[in-house]
Amino acid sequence: MLLEVNDLSLSLKRAGKYSKILDGISFQVAQGETLGIVGESGCGKSMTALSLMQLLPDKARLGGKVDLQGEQITSFSKRKLEKIRGNQMSMIFQDPLTSLNPLHTVGTQVEESLILHTKKSKQERRDRVLHLLRAVGLPRAEELIDEYPHQLSGGMRQRVMIAIAMACEPQLLICDEPTTALDVTVQAQILELMNDIKRQTKMGIIMITHDMGVVAEVCDRVIVMYAGKIVEEAPVIELFQNPKHPYTQGLLDSIPKLGERKKKLGSIPGTVPTPGNMPAGCRFADRCIHAMDICRSTLPPMINILENHQTACWLYDEKEAKNDGSARSTE
Ligand code: SF4
Ligand code: MG
């Protein structure tokens, strides 16, 4: 397995005390597979990515285990981590403008990780940079290499970010909302590029998004996060055809159907509970139209729907369904 995440937890210090941002996160990514992580903002998607990269504030408490190609990277020293970041695993962020250095040329920034992680000569590096710029569909690579980020459009900048991330041929690429800041046409082009990259390499990709449309476009398998926990996991087609968790159902309902006006994800009434104010039972209970008594008192366990489809919801617990069936039918 390329990536194995086991019982990952993250606590951050806020206003003098620690609160849990991520709780019991476990998943795997195989070589060549694109795993979607989906949920509204504030559900812990980006924090999961930053925890994998171990790009966390100083006082963060990280628990659990992350294995990348059989190596437990959660026990790595800072120095060893620097060796794998940008090399074995890379990350692309939402906003290409703030991620690029305005003072350095495109060429210098793409070359940086080649200097850090390879023994290539100057000429070899230049050739590789040109190759990368062309591979991500950028025109006039020879000129672009000497241009600065502000001379580029948003879509071009995101292509540069992808070129940087791809420079050392990482085994794992983490993309955090890579198309959110782009307009719809450019968004489609970048997703197409991601699919090309996926076909051409054996890279594992984690695609973080709040957009079910993006999930449908590029993902093989999906985990749905809510308030710092995984609430559902399934292959992409199964998830779209047979969503089980009321939260997943809500997310899918908010996708505009053909001919319908675009609805916002926020069409599920209510908001995500904040860390430090987590309810004792199911974290979605306040927004769930199916909530039963047990939902408010006890956190639902992961329940197998199919071999590769799990959800954390009391509705699918056989014993609970019998006990509480009456409560539900009176809703
Ligand atoms: Fe709704 Fe209960 Fe399922 Fe939570 S466990 S999603 S409150 S039915
Ligand atoms: Mg985010």
From TrEMBL:
Domain ABC transporter intervals: 3-252
Name of the molecule in the record: ABC transporter ATP-binding protein
GO terms, molecular function: ATP binding
Residue ranges the record marks as coiled coil: none
Pfam family, one: oligo_HPY
Location relative to the cell: Cell membrane
Top-rank taxon, per record: Bacteria
Upper classification of the organism: Bacteria, Bacillati, Bacillota, Bacilli, Bacillales
